[in-house]
Amino acid sequence: MPEDELSRSSHSNPGKSLVNGIKTNPASNSPKSSLSVPMGPPVYVDLAYIPNHCSGKNTDPEFFKRVRASYYVVSGNDAANGEPSRAVLDALLEGKSQWGENLQVTLIPTHDTEVTREWYQQTHKKQQELNIMVLASSSTVVMQDESFPACKIEF
């Protein structure tokens, strides 16, 4: 769109503005509904980090419908802030169920949390149907005075 056309379109639409080329509605209070993201084909990647430590604030089934990864990293370890979020883990199941192809997906939790353990146990049958494997690790990395679980990923 030429610059003068872009300028006219933003003036003829009071109350709406462009952020990174996407129309937004500043009057909307919901962060998910404030951006009108155009639909497009899904993006396929080898590895995707689930945004915001797997918090439900930014990730919903639409993320998993559009970002199709062989490996998803779940890094949340803060139950007080809802990280990782059970809703996001459920969104993975919902999003993957709509792919229309049964590609192998591996979920890589960086921490062993009660939320991930319960989700794994309660949805194990659905995970198998959708060809989702949850990686468990018994490896530990020790750095200075801290130790934490680790996973090795090979491509």
UniProtKB/TrEMBL annotation:
GO terms for molecular function: actin binding; microtubule binding. GO terms for biological process: axonogenesis; dendrite development; microtubule cytoskeleton organization; regulation of microtubule depolymerization. Residues 22-36 have a biased composition (Polar residues). InterPro entries: MAP1 (IPR026074), RibonucZ/Hydroxyglut_hydro (IPR036866). Residues 1-37 are annotated as: Disordered. Gene3D superfamilies: Ribonuclease Z/Hydroxyacylglutathione hydrolase-like. It comes from the Eukaryota. GO terms for cellular component: cytosol; dendrite; microtubule; microtubule associated complex; neuronal cell body; synapse. PANTHER family: MICROTUBULE-ASSOCIATED PROTEIN (PTHR13843), MICROTUBULE-ASSOCIATED PROTEIN 1A (PTHR13843:SF6). This is MAP1A protein. It comes from Sitta europaea. The gene is Map1a.
